[in-house]
Amino acid sequence: MSTLKDEVEVLRKIPLFAAMDPSKLKLLAYASDKVEYEDGQLLFRQGDQGDAAFIVLSGVADIVSETGGTEVVVAQLRDHALVGEMSVFCDIPRSATVRANGRLVALKIGKGYLLDLIKEFPELATRIIRELAFRLAKTTADLAASERAARH
Amino acid sequence: MERNLLKFIWKNSRLKQVWLLFVIIASMPFYFLSLELPKQIINGPIQGRNFDAIDATQPFLRLTLPYGEAMFGREIELFGGLQLDRIEMLFALCILFMGFVFLNGWFKLYTNTYKGKLGEEVLRQLRYTLLDRVLRYRVARFRNLKGAEVASVIKDEVEPLGEFVGDAYSLPLFLGGQAITGLLFLFLQSVYFGLLTIAIVAFQIWLIPRMRRKLILLGRQRQIQARKLAGQVAETVDMAPDIHVNDMSNYTRARHYGLLQNILDIRFELYQRKFTVKYVNNLLMQFLSFLFYLIGGYFVITGRLDIGQLVAVIAAYKDLPGPIKGLIDYDQIRLMNEARYEQTIDSFRDDGLIAPELQTMPPQAVPRLEKGYDLDHVKLDDETGRTVLENVRLHIKPGDRMAIVTRGDDAARTAASVFAGALVRLVLPAAGTILLDGKAIDDHPESLTGRRIGYADGNTYFPAGTIRDNLLMVLKNRPTDESQRGSTAKRPTTAGMLNHVPPSADSEWIDYEDLGVGGKAGLDAHVARVLEVAGLTRQIQDLGLRGTVDPAKNKEFADKIVEVRHEFRENAASLGVEGIVQSFHPELYNSQATVGENLLFGTALDPAWAPNELPRNPTILAILERNGLRSAFQEMGQRIAEARIELFGDLAPDSKIFETVADVTYEEIVRLKEIVGRLKMAERQEPQRQEAAPKGKKGPQKLSDRDEVFRLAFDYCEAQSRFGVLDAETEAKILAARNDLRGEIGGMAEAPVFFHDPDRYNPTASVLDNILLGRVSSTVVDGKEKVLAAVQELVARTGISDGLLQAGLSFEMGNGGRRLSDQQRQKLHVARALLKKPDIIVFNEVLGAMDAAGRREIMTRLIDGPLQDEPDFRPGFVVVLLDDDLAERFDRVLTYSNGGFVETERKADEPQPHAIADAAK
Asked: Which residue among A63, B336, B675, B918 is least enclosed by CB atoms within 10 Å?
């Protein structure tokens, strides 16, 4: 049985929360649920309403895009990755399905609480923005690469 | 019904009234003797009259024949008596006196008890008669009847009549006798004074009723207002949600207050007049004394009357005011009660009562319907008196399956609904005839229509009771025990005075044979099938899972549940719930449960052992002390408090955390801060002192700060809070304490706790908790849902579904059945219509609360084959449809058009979905 202290240690290792005050991390650990998934279990499904964001603590999560009945694994997330934050911020349905690939332990942070947290810690907001910007850059690069590949 | 109260009482209790009178008269001589004896004791042995010689004796209990001297010229001695000396005489007379005291007391006891019983019996008869009337009212009348007002009449208004019954005849005769004797004495003393008295009394008799007229009127008004109050209060309770939603509470208060003020005004005037009458009464009686003294005194002084005579007159008069006052009081009570009774009877008028013959229990089984309905030129009005259907001519055979299609049109729906009501006598035709099996439906006894025709509409009302009670109620038409049936049958009553003693409600009322189910087990199976058709099986089983079962009554089921529990544990993996439920194991600490739960390891049978009470339960405290846990818990509580303050202490009062994740409120955190602060300060000031509670400010029942902190440990669950304050060593100690506690409680005569035991059924826990016997882990996603699904799968597999259904049927439906949803209640109504296996079932827009798809599924199942396992049951249907497209499943279809029905006859093998539309053209 891990205590809050252990969980805080885990959270501290996540770059997103590295700068946060330990007592606030403790609250975050307390407020979020540690959830365990078996292989193949869904964290959420594409099109669902988003009520929580997840941080992968251990294991691998597949990001699956479902279009016209076919499933394509578009990305894989590993340790300390933030996932599911988009529909929490923007109130849009889940843009993809996230599925556990093997045993997965994640931290589930409720929507209301995540927004509260960001309001209280601008530092966290900056980090999330940076993370999102990195992702956008990567997506842009990937898109350019695939366009190039298609042209050839 | 008798219009006059005295006549009603006489009719229902004449023999007893005569007996009562007899007993009262018989008691009189003893009463007078007991008054006479003290005089004899004083005059005889004490003062020593006739005991002049030292050993003189006197006869005791000497008896002579009354009037013997007059008849025979000499005294005839029947019994010479015992010769007793003075002391012996004293003893004998005193013992005799005591004997009379006992005897008088006994007479008083007997007559009072008898009067009370008599009153209650007549009251029972009156209430029964009124209830009988309510049951014989036509349904239409209930639209204008307030339940609470009727209840108030039957319960409260007639109550004072009961007290009156015992006195109704005996008291006036008794008092009248006394008054006449008194008057007679007076006449014997002086004719003039006698005449004077009669004149005054006559004036009283003339005056008082005149003064009382208004009193009676007021009494009636008071009764009506009190009745109105009962109705208004009930309405307020019924519309409580509306009152809150629309901010009507102040208006409602004002309305109630207005009525209360009215009642006060009436009562005040009533008191004024009542006491005025009393005042005039007393005045007149005293005026008589005044006359006696004045006139008598004048005569004595002027020498026309000697003083001895006047004293005798006044002595004779002394006995008169008592009885006369009593008589006048009696008359007042009688009048008020007469008025009350008439008022009661008036509100239960005879008009339009169903003849009692229609409700008698038939001696033989009720025949099946053969010809069905014949409607000829029937005209039906709705509740507002508007004609909705005219000239309906229709024949419905018992096996016909007929749909009425309304297409959602208001006029059509009203017409169809009134029509359906008319088929079961809820509505009487304004013109034309409705024949059932060749006889006007109104002339059929309810035993026939009630058992051979099933009816359900959108109604959702159910009386409080279990689901089973409410379901089986419709089968209880007649006790199966022959001896219970006829009106000659008597159940053990305290006094068999009722004209018709109804059979006992506790005898067996369900006729298995008539229902064709062959016994209790058959009935259970029948109920199960009916519920399946009505789509209720699963929901009732779920109720069963959440309900409790008494293993003493249902040992087999409880044993089975324990088996299922083992199966659930062993097959957790194959059920897909491995690791979700952490089972209660006597030797292991359950990390998903709180510290208190782990310590007690069971459920409380005694409130003193409930989770909240544990921290101050002396036995628990002693055991904690013994196992070295008292201080450990104290420290744990301290650390929990500190951890909570650290976590939540800085949050704003409106922070979302408090709403969503924290297991404490902002206020509790503030309080915790204060407590911890105080404790710290106390420690700094007096480090040696253990008891840190601030004295003086708080009452003794308030917990000290240390106790508050100590308490926290009991509700702590490491798996949920993860503060890291519970280590393996403490867990081991708690396990030891648990064993210790078990030993301690094992020594008690009556165990206050039921311990978790893998092999025993826990009667205080729900069936579901009994199957799980553990805690669902909080970290597993959707753990609860998964576990529930697994349990349901297991239930179906292990064949306890019947038992669960039975457990679910024992669910208390609550006031008006409101613990079930509207949907479930409507399904129950459908199930009830089906349960009695009628020949024709009338469904009037049933299951309106359901979604269309679910309703269609149930309706299809109903129509296509109501009860699959009972093939001989092929009822006819008259269904007012909510889903028009179901019409194709019926043989006959009626459509509403211009104040009448148009029929399309269809062959079953020729589906014509458009036929209805065609017919309407």
From this structure: B918
